[in-house]
Design a protein that fits this description.
With 183 residues, the protein is mainly alpha-helical. The protein contains seven helices and no strands. 80% of the residues lie in helices and 0% in strands. The chain has one domain.
């Protein structure tokens, strides 16, 4: 358990500098830019995959509810960002999402689905707001948003898939290490 905590903290410390530079205000035009953006920043990539991994770890209805909550809240927060509604601490919230979600997944912390959905919803506010404030105010902004939302959902699915792969690999490895019992 201690090794997991140390690993999670070391990983978080290593990525904090890149998370702080994730939203300098980039040229966001069209579906392709919106779709590719989450793949280009470690903060988004890690947080989105972590949401899927956590949903897998919780299982049951969390498989769809936790990622769907993130996507829905992110879209609403993006609209607030477009509208110019201020939100202090956006970059800190994004960095915290990476650290907290990474730690929760690494430590396999279980919580009720409603609380897990609320937690990812809080982090989705920061991710969505950051991108809403960056979107162009022309028609390309709507396409950018559609691309970003689609990519986010796919990264959640990738996280669920990664969770399944890890679980099956762990099960296969455990089965191969078993010593036959003597009769």
């Amino acid at each position: 358990m201690r090794t997991r905590v140390i690993s999670a903290l070391a990983f978080a410390a290593a990525i904090i500098p890149t998370a702080a530079l994730a939203h300098p205000g980039h040229d966001a035009h069209g579906l392709l830019h919106g779709f590719t953006h989450p793949f280009g920043g470690f903060d988004h990539l890690i947080a989105m995959v972590a949401v899927g991994l956590y949903a897998f770890q919780l299982g049951g209805r969390a498989l769809w509810l936790v990622p769907a909550t993130f996507v829905a809240v992110m879209a609403v927060a993006g609209a607030l960002g477009i509208a110019g509604v201020p939100l202090p601490g956006v970059e800190i919230g994004i960095a915290a999402s990476v650290i907290v979600l990474g730690a929760i997944v690494t430590l396999r912390i279980k919580m009720p689905v409603a609380i897990a959905a609320a937690l990812v919803g809080v982090f989705a506010v920061f991710h969505g707001h950051a991108h809403g404030t960056e979107m162009p105010l022309d028609a390309a902004g709507a396409l950018y948003a559609a691309g970003f939302v689609t990519a986010t959902a796919l990264l959640h699915v990738a996280g669920v898939g990664l969770g399944k792969l890890i679980a099956s690999t762990r099960a296969t490895w455990s089965a191969s290490r078993r010593v036959p019992s003597k009769i």
